[in-house]
Structure formats: C-alpha cells, structure tokens
Amino acid sequence: MNMAKEEMKILLFEEDCTDAETTCKYLELSNLKYELIRVTRLADGLLSMKEHTIDLILLDLPLLDNPEITTLKVVTDAVRDEVIIVLTDTDDRQLSEEALQGAVQDYLSKDRLTEDVLRRSILNAMERARLLKRGEAHTSEAQHHTAFRCQIFDANPDAMLILTNKYEIKCLNAAAGELLEAESDALVGETFPFEVEREKRIKLEIPCADNSTRLVELNAIDLVWKGEGALLVILRDVTLRDNSELALQREEKCLSSVLDSIPDAVIVVNSESKIERMNQVALAMLDSRLTEVHGRALGDVLKFKHADAGALITDPIRLLQAEVSADVESELDVSLILPNGSEVSVSVEISRISDDEPEHERYLLVLREVPHHETGEETLFQSEKLHSMGLLAGGIAHDFNNILTAILGNISMVQMGMDEGSADSIKLLAAEKAALQATSLTQQLLTLSRQGGLSLETTALDQLVEESAGFILHGSNVSCEVTKDPNLWAVDVDQGQISQVVNNLMINADQSMPEGGKIRVELACECINNGKVPLLPPGDYVCMAVQDQGIGIKPENLKRIFDPYFTTKDGGNGLGLATSYSIVTNHHGMMTVESVLSEGSIFKVYLPKSAAATPAQPVKKELETNTIHVGQGRILVMDDMEAMMMVAGEILKVLGYEVEYATDGVEAIEAYKKASEAGHPFAAVVFDLTVPGGMGGEEACRILLEYDPDLIAVASSGYSNSSVMSEHEKAGFKAVVPKPYRIKDMSAALQRIL
Prior knowledge:
CATH class of the largest domain: Alpha Beta
Strand order of the largest sheet: 12-11-17-16-15-13-14
Number of domains: 6
Largest sheet: 7 strands, antiparallel
CATH topology of the largest domain: Heat Shock Protein 90
Low-confidence stretches: 325-329, 372-377, 448-452, 618-623
CATH superfamily of the largest domain: Histidine kinase-like ATPase, C-terminal domain
Strand content: 15-25%
Helix content: 25-40%
CATH architecture of the largest domain: 2-Layer Sandwich
Mean pLDDT: 77
Structural class: alpha/beta
C-alpha cells in the first residue's frame, strides 16, 4: 500500500504533552494521510491495539508505567502486522540495537526529529515491512534482498556504501560509484579511502579526475549486514550548497558596506522595539559598538525630546509607530540627546519593512541632522544629489550583480538535480525569487548611476506610451486616455529605458486611484524658452504629461518625490521615480511634478525633438524560456573574480562544455592563441568587461579579432547599462549575458551563436 496516498491509522505512545504536540505538528507537515490515536500509558495502548486495526505504532521510550526494555518487549509481543518506530530522548546504543533486531523498523532520537525525517522514516518503514512480508510469503531471501536494494538503497540520490568493520567495501549504490568516479563492481572489496567517524557528521574533500575537488558531507551509522556488524556510510555532495552559503555571506557583508556608506544614521528595530542593526554613523553618534546595543530597547539607547515642547519622549518607538500608522513613511523633527549631554536637532524618518507575519515586521529609522539654512535652489540641489547618489549606486550595483551571479548560478544548478515540489526545491525557488528581486533593484541602481551609453533610436512616443499603458493597466479598474498633437515630433531615445519611465508613471497613477478612475496622457510639441522649465536648455521638446485623479501628494513630500529610497507606498522601494528622473535627465530632458491633495497629480516629461523624420517601432520583449540546451566544445572564461569564474565554469560544464580560465585580458589572449596553434581552438570566449588594474574584455576582444576574425566572443558584466552591453555587435561580441545570470540564460546565449 502507498501510504503517501492512502490513509493509515497511527497509534502514538507518548506521555509528554510537549513531545506529543511536536510529533503531531511534524505529522501534519508530512502531507501523509492518517488517523491518529494517542495514549499515555502502556495498558491503554495495548487495549487500542485490540480494538482497532493499527498500521503504524510510534512508541515513546520510556513510559511511566514500564521501563524501556519491558515496554518494548510487551508491545512487540502484542503486534500482529503493525509497523513500529521507536521515539526516545535517550541515546542508548544497546537499546537501539535490541530494538532494531526485533520487530522495530526504525529508531529515532527526538532531538534530531524533523517533519522530513519523520516522513522518510514512516514511508521507508512501511515499505520495508511490505517487502519483508512479501519475502516471507515467497520464502525467498534473494527476492527480498533484491527488492530492498532496489527500493531503498540503489534509488537513493545520496552516495551509500556498506563497509565491514575493517572498512572493506561490501556494497554500494550507483550514486556512490558516480561520486567516486569508478565502476561500482570495481570498488567492491577495496578499502574505503577516507577517514570515518561513527555517529558524527564530518566534511571532506574528494579529488576529481579534472583536478578539481568536491566538498562532501560524510555520516557513518552502525548496522547489521548479513548477520555481522557493519557500517552504513552516506556521502552527500554539498559543494554547491556551501558555495551558495558563501555567496550569501558575501552579500551580507556587502549590505553592511552599503549601510555604512550612507552618511545618515541608520537603525533597524523589530516589532518589539529592539535594535537589530545600526550603521557606523549611528554607532559613532552613540559612541558605542553594535554588540553593546544589539537587542536593547530603542528608548534605552536613544534619548529624544519634542522639538517644540522640549519634553522628554519616554517611548519613542510608540510615537514613531503612531506617525507611520497612517502612512508607510513619515518624518518627525525631534531633539536628540547625545551621550556627552549635548543636543542636536534631527529629522527621524521611519519606514515600515513589511513581512507576511506581523510579529516579524521591522522599522527602518534614518536620523538626519536638520541643516540651519536651506539653499533655495531646490531643483539644482535635486540634480546634484541624484548625481552623487548615482555614482555610489553604480559601484554598489556592480558588486551586487557579481554576488547575485554566484547565488543564482549555484541555485539554478542545484535545482536541476532536484524533484519539483520537494521541500528543498520549494525553498530554492523562494531563494531564486528573492535573488531575482534583488536583480531588479540592482538594475534600477545602475540606471540611477547613469553608467554607460544609451542605445538611441528615433521613436514615436505615442506608440510607446499606448503599448506600455495597455500592458500595465490590463485587468485594472483604471482606464487611460491618450491625446497628442497631430504632427507630434519624434524623439531619439533608448526605448527600453523610456518604457521603464512610462511604466513607472502608469503604475504610480494606477495605485493612486484604488477606487478606479482615468489617466490622461497628453503628448505635445513645446518650444521651451529660458526659465520656463528649471535647468532645461531652450529648444524644441516633446512633453508627455501624465495626469491622474488620485489622492495627490502632500506638499512636504513633493520636494523629496524624486529622492532615492523615498516612498509613501506600502511595499515600495523608493527607486521608481528616482530612476525615472535619472533616465530622463540622461536623455538631456527634464521631469517635473505638480499635485493637489484629493485632486490628483501631473508628472511632465520633456524629451528633446529628434532631427530625424522616420521613427522606429517600439521593441517588443521576447518571452523567457526555461529550455536548457546542451552543447560541446571548449570555452575560455575570463573573469578577475575567482568566485564568478568558478560559477561560470560549473554552469558551462553542466551544459556539456570543457572549460579553461583566465583572470584578465592578457591571460585570455595568450590562452586563446596557444590553443589555436596547438590545434585545439576554443569554440567561444566569455569575457568579463571590467578588470580593475588590468586589461578588460572589450580590449582583449578587439585584439583577438585582429588575430582571429572568426572569434566568437560573449560579453558578461554587472554593468548591464554599459554601451557594450546595449550595442555589443559594434564592439565585436556575438552575444551578451548580463550579470547576474542563471544556467538557462547562458544556455540560451550559447545556443544562438554556436
């Protein structure tokens, strides 16, 4: 019977209420179909066995009314066809051996119990019982042994070996032969080549034929094999898992660096008002170390006073929470009492970091010293602020993209060897989703940084607007009306970036009208004179005005609406409008906003008139595919970061290619020429564009094209907005794979050019 699909009756002997609740919880999470009977005493359990047809017994040892061995013996003597799994708090080796030699199918320690362990133990125990029963019916030990190995041993994805006490290999599954890179039959009778520690999980490195190594987790368990003592050795390849963990650690380090680069004091508190994180500016303000303030209540660390009344704020987080309750982000002007007793006027900006579970909600506090004087030149200040922010954002985004490449690459390779729907697969999908969200943020940061050139095309702006509006508002209760001048001028724009601007404006307008409404988009030709639009040179422009009927923007927020990370929306990241502003100014245009509360807002985008007469059609996005294409041949990977180089190499090996490496352009040129002269040329070269202090991929590609005009070069960079990435063919590249990428992205690129 398949117990994963058919209901079984389970009898649980468990006197401890907490342990019983834990076991019941794990059973609920196991997705098994069952009916549960729980008893606390041996006598009650024996009565239930007589009154009900029991499939599985979960037996706690010891019970109050009987010592361990007696309880076990009484129950095993009373069973008919029931399957027994022992649960115990003790780690008694003699007890476990006596149990497993009897009618017990498994022996589980409660402190190591999880839903996955319990599920696998139940399924395996029921299957073993079924096989044993069938073996007894046929009176054939050979048939039973074959079925056991086929169902439990050979089918296990982990490498499994059975050793004698002298470490001689007696039996191994196919996964073990593959891991040890040898035929299974050839290993039988050989001595196991690695150190083994019983009942202890250890890590070791196994050398591979290609001179690389695999990191393996080894676990050894005592068992009886054909009537003699033996060892069951389980080997699990954790190379990719550990690489992913290392990448996550690097991401955490990078995040700390980002927070520390912010000139304002940044503090993160949890729902209980306890401090979880501070950047270096905040710590320096308090003259403290993080270890001294972590976990302490915010009110115990920071002393605030009302800016006007001068009274001490006894519970600052409650006051701040009250400010943020009606709005996702709010500001509060207060006086901060420093450790030396002096006071400084600060603006405290608080944002809610939402979570699906309210108890896990967090608050981000940004403390900014209030300046004594305003410049009065707000537009110029805004532009200069975005420029400075952009320079920082570009470098951060590039480093994040490298880190995300390692994370996404390893995740995509691990996913290939997993069953869809498994617990680990679901966790990896969630990790991949989070990494892809981070990828979207880095793309916005790169756009904000204005790095690289634009891929300009003469474009009819009305066609681009109509296509974006139809896509964004599909299924919405908001409609869109587009009007335009009959002889609307064309504009020279990067269609992808301007589409992003239109999308952001449409999304903001849609979200400002939760009850529905109409968005009016007016496209007009305008001749701009001096001073009509601040910082916009005189000339001919196409003006796109996007007007909504929404809630409007508060006057105090208007001057900050284009600031990076400023948002009044639940779940927003505050980069949409900042990125849009940066895109427009990078096109030598300007973006403005006007708003009235309860009446709506008007965003205006000014783009210079094109000198050309014929516009190009908006570019349509290609559908993403999950198909993995396997190839062959030798590929050279050039990257200055070892982690990125190794990830790219592993991905290419999975795709069927042989891989060699170079750390800069000089090494790549030398390796390519050497391979060609030896008669073993590379099918393609994957170049990282940026090598600090060395020759990058663009220059190396140009030199190699002079040597070999048939060079097949692929550009890969974390600066996805660079001119090479947008117009790669002009630089001699056949394809681009922007960082971060997954295995399917590299596969698709190579499939197109090889």
